[in-house]
Amino acid sequence: MTDRSTLHASFTVERTYPVPPAKVFAAWSDADQKAAWFHGPPEFGQRDKSFDFRVGGSETVSTVPPEGPEHRFHARYYDIVPNERIVYAYNMEHGDVRASLSVATIELEAVDGGTRLTITEQGTFLDGVYDADDREQGTIGLLGQLGEHLAGGA
Question: How confident is the model over 37-68, as pLDDT tens digits?
């Protein structure tokens, strides 16, 4: 029997990118652009992907690391204000185990020389699969990949 646990936590990460909010928003809202930066390490194989960026729409990304098991990201979009805000809820699964459920809010603000992106995540982390620190580090990595994409390097 699996030891059951529930951990509630939140975190906020800010980044400033040297492009206007419309370009940052496009990197989140355009399927091809998002696929260019929203992914795991290169050694992870990809299985399934769907992308329906609209209020009520959903997104799924399924990857398989060399050591397994499959990692699945399922999101539903609840609020979208072009060039300003995206709010979505998502769950992560590892194999047949639900690892977490979260609400993420992305805010975009024009600042001198670019855009300040603030992402706040409120999560419920289940059964010790991982915790908020793990998720925050993953988010930091993804935002780094977003920065490379916006700079033309991805």
Answer: 998 887 887 778 899 999 999 999 998 888 87
pLDDT single digits (tens) 71-104: 899 999 999 999 999 999 999 998 899 999 999 9
| Chain centre distance of CA 113 | 25
DSSP β-ladder status, 114-126 and 97-111:
antiparallel
Q: What number of other Cβ atoms are within 10 A of residue 45's Cβ?
A: 12
Q: Model-level pTM greater than 0.85?
A: yes
Cα–Cα distances (Å) from 86 to 61, 81, 90, 128, 137, in that order, read: 18, 6, 13, 28, 20
Structural contact between residues 18 and 114, judged by C-beta atoms closer than 8 angstroms: yes
Starting from the edge strand earliest in sequence, which strands make up the sheet with 71-81, in order?
6-17, 114-126, 97-111, 85-94, 71-81, 58-64, 45-51
Query: Residue 59: CA atoms inside 13 Å, Cβ hemisphere, count?
Result: 22
Residue type present at position 25: F
HSE-up of 77 (CA within 13 Å, CB side)?
Answer: 19
